[in-house]
Write a structure and sequence with these properties.
The chain is built from 10 helices and 5 strands, in the order H-H-H-H-H-E-H-E-H-H-E-H-E-E-H. By secondary structure, it is mostly helical. It is globular and about 50 Å long. The termini are far apart. 24% of the residues are buried.
């Protein structure tokens, strides 16, 4: 989708270069704005406009048009643009069926709660903590602390599962939670507490 809309906007590039530009820009933004990179709910549009503008400049030095930005924004607000991994719903059904209190802790923009609802996932969670809404995010301890309070559990009683070594695994452990790294592509062999699928969680409890 990025490739199609950037090309329609006049950019000329190889697909591999687009992937590199997206990755490099995301790393740069994470370094500049740890935690709540969006600047709160009101800052989201400007964040995404700046992010996509940087990506376009890395591609060919050109500007991102307002039309291209609007098309990308509409696309990613569409719940049909997002795929749910096959292990998600069965794993959530198993965990919630066992009486466990589940929550989302995410460095995302404020659309996430609505997206979870539209994809039929919100029913599993007692709390959804989103960095843009909380105005604080992972790997900082505050968003973990607030979520544990909402669930009525101590940090040491909680298990956080996520796919970022820095934000999820190290951040949760530093906040006093237990943690598992979700390593679907088997890229982080140095991390002892890791799983390849959410279906492995029950055996780790």
């Amino acid at each position: 989708m990025y490739a199609r809309i950037f090309a329609d906007d006049g950019a000329r590039f190889e697909v591999g270069r687009l992937r590199d530009a997206l990755t490099a820009t995301w790393i740069e933004v994470q370094r500049e704005k740890p935690g709540d990179r969006y600047g709160g709910v009101r800052g989201e549009p400007e964040f995404w406009r700046d992010f996509l503008g940087r990506v376009r400049r890395l591609l060919d030095g050109g500007p991102l048009s307002e039309e291209a930005f609007a098309r990308l924004a509409r696309h990613f607000r569409d719940p049909g643009a997002w795929r749910v991994y096959d292990d998600v719903v069965p794993s959530l059904e198993t965990l919630s069926g066992a009486g466990l209190a589940l929550a989302v802790v995410s460095n995302w923009d404020s659309h996430l709660p609505r997206l979870l609802e539209l994809r039929g996932l919100s029913r599993f969670f007692r709390a959804v903590s989103v960095s843009a809404i909380e105005e604080t995010g992972k790997p900082g301890a505050e968003i973990f602390r607030r979520t544990c309070e909402r669930l009525g559990v101590e940090a040491r009683e909680a298990l956080h599962v996520g796919d970022s070594v820095r934000d999820d695994y190290e951040g949760a452990r530093a906040a006093g939670l237990n943690a598992l790294l979700l390593d679907r592509r088997d890229e982080h062999g140095h991390v002892t507490e890791r799983i390849r699928s959410l279906s492995e969680i029950p055996a780790r409890l």
